[in-house]
């Protein structure tokens, strides 16, 4: 395994993600921001949970294409439009809906959620970037 995840004592407890990832490997994978678009061009979900779930499926697909998976991820960066703390339930519902399907560990790798005013298309509510290290 090229990535070791941890949450050292004294850091925020019970977070849905690990605070630290240590990667050892020679290949770094940088995945561009993924949104809820599908390969077949079907409409993206209108709700935050649905978009989070589909964006994570797309992240998993991109990682697989590079010979990686969520076990190799050292960092996730998530951008959510018009963020407010009341949206956390919908956000987490999207993660929980696909975590097993895509192999996303619980707690997740280190993650940052950034509220933004808008993304590149008005209907896009979430965009997820990933960084991984593979032996």
UniProtKB/TrEMBL annotation:
- Give the GO molecular function terms: deaminase activity
Q: Which residues form a coiled coil?
A: none
A Pfam family hit: Ribonuc_L-PSP
One cellular component term from this protein's GO annotations in UniProt: cytosol
Record-linked InterPro entries: RutC-like_sf, YjgF/YER057c/UK114
- What Gene3D superfamilies does the record point to? RutC-like
Protein family membership: Belongs to the RutC family.
> What's the protein here called?
Endoribonuclease
């Amino acid at each position: 395994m090229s990535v070791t995840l941890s949450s050292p004592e004294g850091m925020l407890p019970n977070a849905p993600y690990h605070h630290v990832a240590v990667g050892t490997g020679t290949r770094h994978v940088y995945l561009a921001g993924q949104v809820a678009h599908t390969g077949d061009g079907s409409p993206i979900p209108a709700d935050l949970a649905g978009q989070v779930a589909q964006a994570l499926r797309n992240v998993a697909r991109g990682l697989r294409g590079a010979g990686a998976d969520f076990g190799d991820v050292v960092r996730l960066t998530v951008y959510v439009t018009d963020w407010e703390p009341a949206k956390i339930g919908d956000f987490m519902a999207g993660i929980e809906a696909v975590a097993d399907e895509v192999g996303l560990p619980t707690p997740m790798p280190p993650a940052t959620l950034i509220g933004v005013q808008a993304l590149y298309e008005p209907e896009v509510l979430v965009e997820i970037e990933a960084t991984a290290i593979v032996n």
